[in-house]
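Protocol step 4 of 5: obtain the predicted structure for the target chain.
Materials: sequence only (see below). No template structures provided, no constraints applied. The aim of this step is simply to have a reference model before the mutagenesis design in step 5. Sequence pasted as it appears in the construct record:
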Amino acid sequence: MKSFVFAIGDLHGNYDLFQKLLKDYDPAIHQLVLIGDLNDRGPKTKQCFFQGMQLVQETGAIYLRGNHEEYFLQFLQSPEDWFYPYLRNGGEETIESLLHPGATEEYSPTEIAMMIRSQYKELIDFLCERPLYYEWGKYLFVHAGVDLNKKDWHETDPSDFIWIREPFHEGKNQTGKTIVFGHTITPMLHGDMQTTDLWIKDSKIGIDGGAVFGGSLHGVVFDEHGIIQDIEYQNNEGPWQSRF
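Step 4 output (structure tokens):
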């Protein structure tokens, strides 16, 4: 087991901020954990996807499945059913990053899915294999959270690992684990739709600072005792947007 974990919050196509954080990543001492949602909404999903895959293959990084990876895979599986819901949740940016600008208007949903499946088979196979959680000592890393009503959190429904919100945020954590998660932006967890700092409560640590909405991207370094560094980069390309 490496001496530290380096956990990175939801990227959503913010490749440039991703690169800034990776300057502090040392594979010799850090276990890198990508908390999921590398795609959708932001402009550079393709670069984020392939960087994530490379880090897993070359440095042993952990890339967790998020609900937006799930959206993407569901669209590819049933394009006619999922096309418009996926577009409403940031899928247009992903499709155009993987194909080209205007692709969502130029082709039918089925044609889009066929082209992506044909051109990116290795990537799709990789995304299908992403784990739902990662345990490291007293820490549990997961995209959205766990079902705190289960006697054993391992029995959480697979969809809850990537989708759960309030029941996890508000439930009592009796798992014995410090749970590090993304999915819900920390400005929402703080209750003011402004504060992008980490959200820490009841041995739960929210690290999604809402970078794609004009918030910030966190890279959090843990040792066995707690947080030793929080590297936060603000997304200065646009004003804060409270759409979610």
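Step 4 remarks: The chain has two domains: 1-63+132-243, 66-128. The first strand starts at residue 4 and ends at 8.
Proceed to step 5.
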